[in-house]
Design goal:
It comes from Streptomyces mimosae. Helix 2 packs across helix 3 and helix 2 runs antiparallel to helix 5. The protein folds into 2 domains: 158 residues, no CATH class; 120 residues, Muramoyl-pentapeptide Carboxypeptidase, domain 1. By secondary structure, it is an alpha+beta fold. Helix content is 23%, strand content 14%. Strands 2, 4, 5, 6, 7 and 8 form a 6-stranded mixed β-sheet that branches. Strands 1-3 form a two-stranded antiparallel ribbon.
Length: 306
């Protein structure tokens, strides 16, 4: 197992080695609609030539090149989330303060680093930029994904610290819209929830005709416009308050969402102590009432935030 005494830092060309800091910004560069760009390490000249980010916002890993080609096949649907590759994103993997804020933890006991093993074994991590709305970021988001290992108790497994480095048009978290062709955790949640309400559809994370038909049936039962899409007018009726001791499809939906945010849960439909702990941790991290109950505000933040 490779261990280091300090974090392998992301570097600025011609500058002293130091971690880049998280910055707030009013907007991100306007890329083509739904374009995904994976950025891994570069020089300022490289960024400027590509016209992606200016030198003041450059962040790169140990002098490697930028990757701007097609996303790997496993990331073909990672427009907004998770955007960090096949390893597990752990919410607790990131340093939250101090010199290495926003980088993977490295205490040598529960967490350690995984240098030069990202993307074909050449990088310490990558930057991921998406130009569309993503959770609380209304017109684009940039994330850094820093690789490491997590001691699961039965061995070391790969983990990722995902940290938002830029958020365009930051504002209130809103319910997302999932519709025909959508994929991912929000679709899983909608499928589990509509099934809970008696309109069964297979929870496969793909929003196809069967899911649309089930959603229309639910909407008609609630006197909502039968659009077949799950948007801001449907989510509040669809979500169900769940808490420790509950079980079923609604709990599975909550577990899918907590897993999306980096809490390693098994989606088994049983709201036990681990799910309650994850719910409380998520609430604490997002400024919500910390009670471990997944109600309307927690659901909206789970589903709407990236």
């Amino acid at each position: 197992m490779t261990t280091l005494d300090e974090v392998p830092q992301l570097r600025r060309a011609g500058a002293a080695d130091r971690p880049t800091r998280r910055r707030s910004t009013a907007s991100l560069p306007r890329l083509a609609p739904r374009r995904r760009t994976v950025l891994q390490s570069a020089t300022v000249v490289g960024f400027t030539a590509l016209g992606v980010f200016g030198p003041a916002r450059a962040a790169y890993a140990d002098g490697y090149d930028i990757w701007t080609g097609e996303c790997p096949s496993y990331a073909s649907t990672h427009d907004c989330s998770p955007g960090c590759g096949p390893s597990t994103v752990h919410a607790a993997a990131c340093e939250t303060s101090g010199e290495y804020e926003g980088f993977h933890r490295n205490d040598g006991v529960t967490w350690t680093l995984r240098p030069n093993q990202c993307y074909s074994g050449s990088y310490d991590g990558w930057l991921w930029a998406f130009s569309g709305a993503c959770g609380a970021c209304g017109c684009g988001i940039e994330r850094r994904c820093h690789d490491g290992y997590f001691n699961s108790g039965s061995g070391w497994v790969r983990s990722i610290c995902r940290w938002t480095t830029d958020c365009g048009c930051e504002g209130a978290i809103a319910w997302p819209t999932v519709r025909d062709g959508s994929r991912g955790p929000d679709v899983y949640a909608a499928q589990h929830l509509v099934t809970f309400h008696g309109f069964a559809t297979e929870p496969d994370g793909i929003y196809g005709p069967n899911t649309a038909a089930a959603v229309r049936g639910f909407q008609e039962s609630m006197d909502l416009a039968p659009t077949g899409e799950v948007a801001a007018t449907t989510w509040p009726h669809l979500v169900v308050t769940v808490r420790q001791g509950d079980s079923g499809e609604a709990v599975s939906a909550a577990q899918r969402q907590l897993a999306k945010h980096g809490y390693p849960l098994t989606v088994d439909g049983a709201f036990g102590a681990l799910t309650a702990d994850a719910a409380r941790a998520f609430q604490r991290a997002n400024g919500l009432t910390v009670d471990g109950i997944v109600g309307q505000q927690t659901w909206r933040t789970l589903v709407g935030a990236a």
